[in-house]
Amino acid sequence: MAGAAGGLFVGVLVGSSVSALTSQGFLVLMMIAGAVGFYLGIDTPPLPFHPADGQVSRDDTVEQIDTAEFLSALGTFLAGFSAFAAVALIVLRHDPHIAWTTMLMAGWIIGVAMQITAGAIARIRR
Q: What is the Cα–Cα distance from 82 to 108, expressed in whole angstroms?
């Protein structure tokens, strides 16, 4: 629901600035992308703490960033910030320059894409 609401707010803001994106289909697409992104991106299974065979050696203690968790965190931040900024602009009745609207739309799309990618990576490696 949070992803769908965020997609709706970003879609409304973008649609009010770009007349070609005022259709109901665009809003539904944004809502579905947000819902799928938040569902897959927020609920990512973590990497196992220990190797599968249970043996831990000192040579294998290379610290790595978990790609799925990183993409999930960054994607959630980008999409959430874009939705928050869109709501703020709508409530304050501010008409941003097209460059700001484009950046908010890009932040939303990139964030949701990162969430979907994170969810796919985490589910494939299980």
A: 6
